[in-house]
Description:
This protein is of the alpha/beta class and 229 residues long. It has one domain (29-198): Vaccinia Virus protein VP39 (Rossmann fold), CATH 3.40.50.150. It has helices spanning 28-36, 61-70, 83-92, 141-148, 164-169, 172-178, 197-206, and strands at 5-8, 11-16, 19-22, 51-55, 75-79, 99-102, 105-106, 111-116, 133-139, 155-158, 181-185, 209-214, 217-222. The termini are far apart. The mean pLDDT is 93.
Amino acid sequence: xxxGISIRGGKPIYNYLGTEIDSPIDSLEAxxxxxxxxxxxxxxxxxxxxxxIDIGAYVGMYSIKASKFVGDxxxxxxxxxxxxxxxxxxxxxxxxxxxxxVNTALSNYTGSARLYSSPSSAxxxxxxxxxxxxxxxxTTLDELIxxxxxQKVDYIKMDAEGSDVNILLGANNVLLTHHPVLSMACxxxxxxxxxxxxRIIVYLQNMGYKCVTRKGYIYAKWSGTNNIS
Length: 229
């Protein structure tokens, strides 16, 4: 068994720096990505006092990791649309007051959407159409930050199951005003099987970001200039 993992009631319980993470039975891949491969830490990690937005927070794995980075002076906003995952999130972050949970999907509009079910507990999506779905609320990152009264955004982690482009389109003000570091899972494809990676890079470059790609992930930092007129 891998270090930091135990089994309780037939489900894995992970432990990160003293915080237990109760998770669905199929959550090992997400655990390995966040804690073993450190896929979101390639160019930077959040610093003490930072504000981090975890888009696609799942059961809180990266949110918990980020909460340790930012400390008591920082804030982690865990954004997750699926109600059953919110239950895990709430249980897992009870002892971490620097995490605020938001039960919504993000896109480039406000309203509602169908969140289509996946056999994987980490892969429900408003982009990939399937038979079963749950109706969830949708907002933009710009509107969310405004409504929460957040004054700065330093770091964004995103794993949004194909909604990446639309989420960025709804985050213009955040990107241009706060210039956060971005670490994004971008191995998703459109309905024709074309990866979103190229479109995301062009968009971010026009917004003034320098991008690095690595094994299906995009890492981006503000360059100081943009092509927005």
